[in-house]
Amino acid sequence: MKRLIGLVIGLMVFGLWVVSAAGNGLPDDLAGYLSWHRGNSQKSFAESAHPIAKDIYFNDTAAETVMSKNFPYAEGTVFLKERTDIETLMVSTIYGMRKVAGFDPANGDWQYAVFEREGSSGKFMGGWMESSGSAMCIGCHTTSKDKDYTFLTYLAN
Ligand code: HEC
Questions:
Q1: d(CA 133, ligand 1 centre) in Å
Q2: Could you give the angle at the alpha carbon of 57 between the alpha carbons of 53 and 63, nearest 5°?
Q3: CA of 56 to the centre of ligand 1 (A)
Q4: Pocket test for ligand 1, best of 33, 36, 45, 48 (most atoms within 8 A of CB)
Q5: Which of 111, 138, 141 to mutate to test the pocket of ligand 1 (most atoms within 8 A of CB)?
Q6: Which of 72, 81, 82 lies closest to 110, judged by CA?
Q7: Distance in angstroms (rounded) separating the CA atoms of residues 146 and 157
Q8: How far is the centre of ligand 1, averaged over its atoms, from the C-alpha of 140 (Å)?
Q9: Per residue in 120-134, pLDDT tens?
């Protein structure tokens, strides 16, 4: 019985944590990303530029193109990639890509973002970057230009 009560309390705490995720420091339009589509069914441990233990989320606008493979993506597409620190099991970083018409036509009109969780407040700091600040992201994502700068490798995970 004690165990059951423990489980119920645990679930309640988890529920509160999910609800309070809205105050996680992310911009309002991203705060609910945990209810978006997840691109990988199991956590991705593929080695790439991004550290291991990853989950990739994308919104409905992105999903239409992910399903049809009819590139390019429409304006309003957003991808977020979570990095979980395998020592603390906390999400430490969220990387973003969003389509903004006219933002950077030479590089597919993608805007890139990095949000880092700040240790003391637990909130995500950072934001969407100017294209000049995301040369590194662009440089590598250009190698997947045939899929409109996304890799989508994790879909098979
Ligand atoms: C050296 C290559 C490289 C660099 C640099 C890089 N990425 Fe990626 N990115 C990848 C690969 C490979 C994937 C596919 C998932 C995986 O295995 O990590 C990916 C996936 C993503 C995704 C999920 C959408 C997709 O492409 O399928 C986002 C969002 C993303 N990266 C954001 C960024 C941001 C923001 C930066 C710069 C701060 C960046 N990336 C820099 C290689 C790179």
A1: 15
A2: 140
A3: 10
A4: 48
A5: 141
A6: 72
A7: 21
A8: 8
A9: 899 999 999 999 999
* Neighbouring-strand partners of residue 96: 80, 113
Average pLDDT for residues 3-26, to the nearest whole number?
Answer: 61
Confidence of residue 41 (pLDDT cuts 50, 70, 90): confident
Please identify, by atom number, the ligand 1 atom nearest to the C-alpha of residue 47: 17
State the pLDDT at residue 120: 87
* Tokens, residue 39: 């691109």
Shortest-distance atom of ligand 1 to CA 96: 29
Q: Is the CB of 54 under 6 A from ligand 1?
A: yes
User: In whole angstroms, what is the distance from residue 8 CA to residue 35 CA?
Assistant: 23
C-alpha distances (whole Å) from 21 to each of 30, 61, 91, 96, 124 are: 11, 22, 12, 17, 11
Domain ranges of the chain: 26-156
Q: Is 97 in the pocket of ligand 1 (CB under 6 A)?
A: yes
Tokens at 128, concatenated = 């969407």
Phi, psi of 127 (to 5 degrees): 170, -170
Residue 12 DSSP label:
H
